[in-house]
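Figure S4 source data
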Amino acid sequence: MAPKLNKLLSLLSKDKAGTYPGRQVVEFYGLNRENFPLQAGSSETKFMEPFTGPSKNAEYSSYRIHIVNGASMLNWYLISVSLHSYITMYVDLTRNETIGSERCSIMKYRDMMVDNYLNAGGDLRTWRYIGVNGITNRVTHHLVTELFQARGGDIRKPFSVEVAPGDKEFADVMVGNPFTRGIQGLLRQYEKEMGHARIKRFVFMTEYVERRLNVNPKCECHLVVELCRPGESGYRRGWLV
């Protein structure tokens, strides 16, 4: 018991983003983090390159979170500290998508993201990009379908839509799906630790992705959120929603 307690105390006292006594670590919630290497030749991070610049998967570390002694994976994510980038590959913390559904873990995903980023040696004050690879949430898919149609696009084909705080759709899109709503919650809860970051823009995009078991490529939906801070282009001091 003592070695485990010492490890938790070390995590709480030595994160590289500065002293943060309120940090919540996955181990406190009965969860484990383990390396989960990407397959050689995979293109999981390619959709981020228009924002982070050209990269190779080798620049990203890959991990997954699961319940101790449990087989089910709760979260799979990628992190590149050098690119200030975090990508959610998979997250499932509830029994289903219904609001109020029973949770698989009481740890909120925004707290998990912060602990994941700090655990990799990241600095919350310079965290810039948050991506979601292969969105399957039905509510978000419906929202993106309508957003694409309003801009002349089709979610079944490659397309992209950028939404910024000054756009009329911003508030509806922000609160209308769990991904952007969760990121806004993260920025509010960790406002000081995140250097008073705000959302500069978020981009929904679709692209054809070839899977080894599929003869025909599938069009998948991704999300990229870019953050900004005081003094940077696009920064707005207040909370719009």
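Figure S5 source data
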Amino acid sequence: SARRAADTAYDRTLLASARAVADGLYAEDGRLRANIPYVALDTFAYDSAGRIYYQVLGHRGEQVSGYEDLPPAPPGTRRTDDYPALAHFYDAEYRGQGVRVVSLLQPVSEPQLNGMAEIRVAETQGARERMARELLVGTLWRMGLLSVSALLLVWLAVSLALRPLETLRRVVAERASDDLQPLPDAGLPREVLPLVEALNQFNERLRGLFERQSQFIADAAHELRTPLAALKARIAL
């Protein structure tokens, strides 16, 4: 779906941001420090698509850097198989806004420091919601365009298929009432040929019937003509 595509794209960016923070971790005087370049801090504080927050916690859970009150992952948060085992994604509420959070565990192995540091990066969800809407609108637009194109192709195919039938209709409509010659079947669709053949057979039977009627009338007229001629002859005498 459009929302899943947007989530996948932004989750990867969120994870890359957490890894950038993890790369800046180092130990000094037995304490964990975070060295994040100014450009990275500027990117985390504000970006064109929304707000981004980060937090670094030491191996004992102590605050190292960033925002102190970022919400932790809810109990029972399930890990997605799309990302490494040490990364967890979850939705939360922060400062009155819905945020998407990634929690990345970073192994720390230094003298007097041995355990897992945690990096949390949160992003407001307005950007991904906007992207999801844009993807949905784009998808609907493409589907609508494809549907219209398909309808036009169907209409064109039906029109081409029915053109021989229209020609046949005109031939039948322009015929004289006593024209029983076979209908032309050239160029007709295969499915229509049995119908045309049946009509031609019916016309053939009608033509035979009319011919027999004409012959009967001619014979009857001949039979009547002979007695009348004889009667006229007698009257003349």
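The CA atoms of residues 27 and 33 lie 6 Å apart. The chain is about 50% helix and 20% strand.
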